[in-house]
């Protein structure tokens, strides 16, 4: 019953906010006038803010990632093993109602991982629109975050292979994740491309994070997947 309630709530909530801007389109909205600035600085003045995008960068799209942060265990200490998350175009949603960002990731991180893809497929059927954009994963070295997606406004595929340039702790009120793996929200990030890897995108910010943090100690073998969700603001040089 709890599973059904969670899935139903997720579908109803996301469908409602996505359906609201139908007259102006559901995907591919021009978000170039939206600002990342509110996310760059923490309420904790002791934390170093994230740098803003370059003047030559244009906000191309905003996508929702729903998946897992992955960890192995070495001598009782969790070791990051990358991440995996399907990406969904929420550019129109955020443009038409920026307040949605405050609860969207927190809502989706509580949908059980084994039904997340099915839940989003039902959302797409409900609103009769294709919102699947692409995939976020890591290269085999677990040190190169990769994004491969189709940007609806351009109707072409973009790619990004990069590294973490800066980190900023998630706000104190961020959703800590789905119990019993609710160890906290992963930090906000500014990602920059690695040279020579063929990236077509210039900068990516991870914000509005929910879940994904590892415990302080570990005792598992193999890889542990910690559910997370986040918004990604994706930029391209003008």
UniProtKB/TrEMBL annotation:
<dbReference type="Pfam" id="PF11937">
    <property type="entry name" value="DUF3455"/>
</dbReference>
<feature type="signal peptide">
    <location>
        <begin position="1"/>
        <end position="19"/>
    </location>
</feature>
<dbReference type="InterPro" id="IPR021851">
    <property type="entry name" value="DUF3455"/>
</dbReference>
<keyword id="KW-0732">Signal</keyword>
<protein>
    <recommendedName>
        <fullName>Malate dehydrogenase</fullName>
    </recommendedName>
</protein>
């Amino acid at each position: 019953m709890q599973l059904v309630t969670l899935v139903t709530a997720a579908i109803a909530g996301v469908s409602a906010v996505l359906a609201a801007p139908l007259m102006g389109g559901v995907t591919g909205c021009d978000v170039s006038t939206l600002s990342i600035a509110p996310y760059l600085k923490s309420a904790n003045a002791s934390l170093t803010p994230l740098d803003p995008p370059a003047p030559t960068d244009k906000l191309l799209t905003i996508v929702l990632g729903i998946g897992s942060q992955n960890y192995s265990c070495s001598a009782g200490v969790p070791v990051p093993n990358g991440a995996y998350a399907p990406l969904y175009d929420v550019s129109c949603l955020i443009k038409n109602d920026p307040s949605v960002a405050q609860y969207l990731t927190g809502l989706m991180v509580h949908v059980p991982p084994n039904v997340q893809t099915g839940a989003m497929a039902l959302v797409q059927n409900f609103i009769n629109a294709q919102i699947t954009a692409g995939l976020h994963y890591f290269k085999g070295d677990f040190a190169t975050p990769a994004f491969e997606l189709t940007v609806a406004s351009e109707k072409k595929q973009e790619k990004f292979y990069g590294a973490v340039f800066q980190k900023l702790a998630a706000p104190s009120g961020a959703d800590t994740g789905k119990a019993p793996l609710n160890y906290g929200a992963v930090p906000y990030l500014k990602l920059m491309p690695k040279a020579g890897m063929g990236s077509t995108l210039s900068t990516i910010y991870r914000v509005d994070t929910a879940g994904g943090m590892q415990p302080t100690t570990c005792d598992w073998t193999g890889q542990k997947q910690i559910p997370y969700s986040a918004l990604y603001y994706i930029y391209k040089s003008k």
